[in-house]
Amino acid sequence: MSKENLILEIENLVVNYELEAETVRAVNGISLSLEKGKIVGLVGETGAGKTTTALSILKLIPDPPGIIKNGNISVDGQDIIHASIEEMEVIRGKDVSMIFQDPMTSLNPVFTVGDQIAESIEIHEKISRNEAFKRAGEMLEMVGIPASRATEYPHQFSGGMKQRVVIAIALACNPKLIIADEPTTALDVTIQAQVLSLIKDLIEKNNASMLLITHDLGIVAEICDEVAVMYAGRIVEKGTLEDIFNNTKHPYTEGLFNSLPNIDDRNAILKPIKGLMPDPTNLPRGCSFAPRCDYCTDICEIQPENRMISHTHSVACSAYENPEFSIVRGSK
Amino acid sequence: MLRYILRRIFLMIFVVLGVSFVVFFVINLAPGDVLSKIAPEDATLEEVEALRVELGLDRPIMFRYLDYMKGFVKGDLGKSYITGDDVFKTYMAKLPATLKLAFASIFVSILISIPLGIMAAKNRGSWKDNVSMVAALLGLSMPNFWLGLLLILLFSLKLGWFPTGGAIGFKSLILPAITVGTGLAALLTRTVRSSMLEVIRQDYLRTARAKGVKEKIVINKHAFKNALIPTITIAGTQLTRVLGGAVITETIFAWPGVGRLILDAVYSRDVTMITGCIILKSITISIILLIVDLLYAAVDPRIRAQFAKGGK
Question: Where is the ABC transmembrane type-1 domain (chain B) (predicted)?
Answer without folding.
Answer: 95-296
